[in-house]
Design brief:
Layout: H1 12-22, H2 26-41, E1 46-50, E2 53-57, E3 61-67, E4 71-76, E5 99-104, H3 111-126
Helix pairs in contact: 1-2, 2-3
Length: 132
């Protein structure tokens, strides 16, 4: 049985906003920017709070962003099945499903390519997990 949410429970969006505010350095600024880019990539994305981290989903998990001491990790849950023509993935390249992008302070983000990758991940989920 699923536990009912209290009226006073913060929403996932509020938890993400609070998390960004708690990261009072470059990590908060970067996470806020990544959030904006991810949400702009596909209007059907839903914000969730899982495993203590922001997650965006659409017919399943799409992407999560973890903020660590020295970097952000952008995890694409089905990244191994996605095209990456801009070579954004730089970690987890041997994993069977997930692929990641590690961004350190000062690293530049190819924003258009990241949005393209998010859209590809959503399309993959919507296709039922079938490559086109």
């Amino acid at each position: 049985m699923k536990k009912a949410e209290s009226k006073d429970s913060p929403t996932p969006a509020q938890l993400i906003t609070d998390h960004i505010a708690e990261l009072a350095d470059w990590r908060g600024t970067r996470l806020a920017r990544l959030r904006k880019l991810i949400l702009a990539a596909d209007l059907g994305l839903t914000e969730e709070w899982k495993w203590g981290t922001p997650v965006w989903s659409n017919k399943g998990n799409v992407v999560a962003v973890g903020a660590f001491k020295d970097y952000h990790k952008i995890n694409f849950f089905k990244g191994a099945s996605l095209p990456d023509p801009h070579h954004l993935f730089n970690t987890g390249l041997d994993a069977k499903a997930m692929r990641s992008i590690d961004l350190h302070e000062g690293d530049k983000i190819n924003e258009a390519a990241l949005k393209e990758l998010v859209r590809a991940a959503v399309a993959f989920n919507l296709s039922g997990g079938k490559k086109k």
